[in-house]
Design brief:
β42 and β43 form a beta hairpin. The chain has one helix and 55 strands. Among the domains are: 93 residues, Immunoglobulin-like (Sandwich), CATH 2.60.40.2060; 78 residues, Immunoglobulin-like (Sandwich). The protein is flat and about 70 Å long. The strands form six sheets. The chain has a 19-stranded mixed β-sheet that branches. The protein has a 14-stranded parallel β-sheet with strand order 1-4-6-8-11-14-17-20-23-26-29-32-35-38, with no helix packed on it.
């Protein structure tokens, strides 16, 4: 079909179309071809077991509504919704490979929701449903927008929550995922950033992290489990109900403020670590698995095996994609003989390469913050991992984090030829940026050298032939007037 004035409700759309008013897709499959823009000025509704396939296409609507009857599915596409996004008329709903930006609120009600391989940004994210499954996806609430979990199963995903996180009744499981809460708040001590209903359960596993900028209210009987996972709270932690906080298997809980364990609350540390910066009140924590036991007694402290058994205690590791760069930041609560961190990057989550290293702080019991900026050469999904290396060469790897990088255009710096023959020079093509320095190092993080270079028309000749580089993989770091780039160079 070609030349639509009004968008159809089934079939294939192969050229731009606009519907003035509402468009209802009921019990049909509608495909929007790549490169095509489908515009609905009113409300776009899918219901009755409908499928909307928009891989590589743009969908623009005033509002979005997913309605009753059967499984409704969105596959692919970039959605720009100027109003609200509402799902849940009784049927199940699936989103796969969708990039959605919603100006208003997102509301998910009454259905089983599955979201995979997607990015979703909205003013707030509210749920009242049976179950929600989230995998390999990114979620953002803008400003100080709130977010709600209810009976959610989350894997390999990241969340940037501008306001408060509400955890409703039921069990929410977080696996290998990263959650930042209260990022829109002016400070981390003036407001509650996470609230849990009385019977809510949150289970964190597989090196998940949650950074909470504010206070935590664990409710009258809520349970929190940190199994090989990490929670950092800038404010106070209120566990005055009869709920349980369990820290195990190398997990950590760091509370900058006070920890209140009065009123029947239970706190256990089994092979993990707990740090309280302010006062600890109430029942002493039950500490097993070895380690210190000085969390309680009023003045806070550190308890559990993680207080002394780990060379570096990592309390947060987060990644934020910006217009033309990716920001990595991480924080440690203590370090022992920490020489440096290797930063590893991958495009598939399997094969990683070292793109830079950041010096550690030796031995310290103070909180240390680190930052590093990456400038990937093209848009797409990227995976990052930290490797911590001691002075004696022993090392450990921390959890892998994923980010969806939507770059408006590829970086204007390219290293070539690839591979480079031994004894030859390589070149760097560039536009509109002044090269300030060029260095190269091998993948072990050592043997770093500054390189001499000569500027030619729209390119730079790097005098690598004088370096006597042996065959292998190297990282070239290029510092310009606009930032820093790291790219791999293979020498044969």
């Amino acid at each position: 079909m070609r030349g639509f004035t009004q968008c159809p409700t089934s079939g294939t759309i192969s050229s731009d179309c606009t519907t003035s008013g509402n468009l209802n897709i009921t019990g049909n499959t509608l495909t929007v071809d790549p490169g095509v823009t489908m515009t609905v000025t009113g409300t776009l509704t899918i219901r009755g077991g409908s499928t909307l396939i928009a891989t590589g296409a743009d969908v623009v609507a005033g509002n979005f509504n997913e309605g009753y009857g059967g499984l409704n599915t969105l596959t692919g596409g970039t959605y720009s919704i100027s109003g609200t996004f509402d799902s849940g008329g009784g049927g199940d709903f699936t989103m796969n490979g969708v990039n959605a930006t919603v100006t208003g609120a997102a509301n998910f009600n009454g259905s089983d929701i599955v979201i995979s391989g997607s990015t979703f940004s909205s003013a707030s994210f509210n749920t009242n449903l049976a179950t929600m499954t989230m995998s390999s996806s990114s979620f953002t609430t803008t400003g100080t927008g709130d977010f709600e979990f209810e009976d959610a199963t989350v894997t390999n995903s990241d969340f940037s929550i501008g306001g408060e996180l509400y955890v409703a009744d039921g069990t929410t499981s977080i696996d290998n995922s990263d959650i930042d809460v209260g990022v829109g708040f002016a400070d981390g001590v003036s407001q509650t950033a996470m609230s849990m209903n009385g019977s809510a359960v949150m289970n964190f596993t597989n090196n998940s992290t949650i950074d909470i900028k504010g206070h935590v209210d664990a409710g009258s009987g809520a349970d929190v489990s940190l199994n090989n996972s990490h929670m950092y709270v800038t404010g106070n932690f209120d566990n005055t109900g009869n709920g349980t906080v369990d820290i195990s298997n190398g997990g950590t809980l760091v509370v900058d403020g006070d920890y209140d364990n009065t009123g029947g609350g239970n706190t256990t540390v089994d092979g993990g670590g707990m740090v309280v910066g302010g006062d600890y009140e109430g029942e002493d924590p039950v500490v097993t698995g070895g380690g210190d036991e000085d969390c309680s007694g009023g003045s806070g402290g550190c308890c559990g095996s993680a207080c002394s058994g780990m060379p570096v205690t990592l309390v947060s590791f987060k990644i934020i994609a910006e217009l033309d760069q990716i920001q990595l930041s991480w924080q440690t609560s203590s370090e022992l003989n920490n020489d440096y961190f290797n930063i590893l990057r991958s495009s598939d989550g399997i094969g990683f390469e070292i793109v830079d290293r950041v010096a550690g702080n030796g031995t310290t019991n103070e909180a240390i913050s680190y930052q590093w900026t990456d400038y990937p050469p093209q848009k797409g999904i990227y995976y990052y991992q930290l490797q911590q290396v001691d002075y004696d060469g022993s090392n450990e790897f921390f959890s892998i984090k994923m980010v969806n990088f939507h770059l408006s255009q590829a970086n204007k710096i390219v290293v070539y030829p690839m591979p480079l023959a031994t004894g030859e020079d390589f070149f760097i093509s560039f536009q509109d940026e002044k090269i300030e320095s060029i260095s190269i190092y091998d993948l072990s993080g050592g043997s770093s050298f500054n390189l001499d270079y000569n500027e030619e028309l729209n390119k730079i000749r790097v005098n690598s032939s004088e370096m006597g580089l042996k065959p292998g993989i190297y990282v070239v770091k290029i510092t310009t007037s606009l930032g820093q780039y790291s790219q791999k160079l293979r020498v044969n």
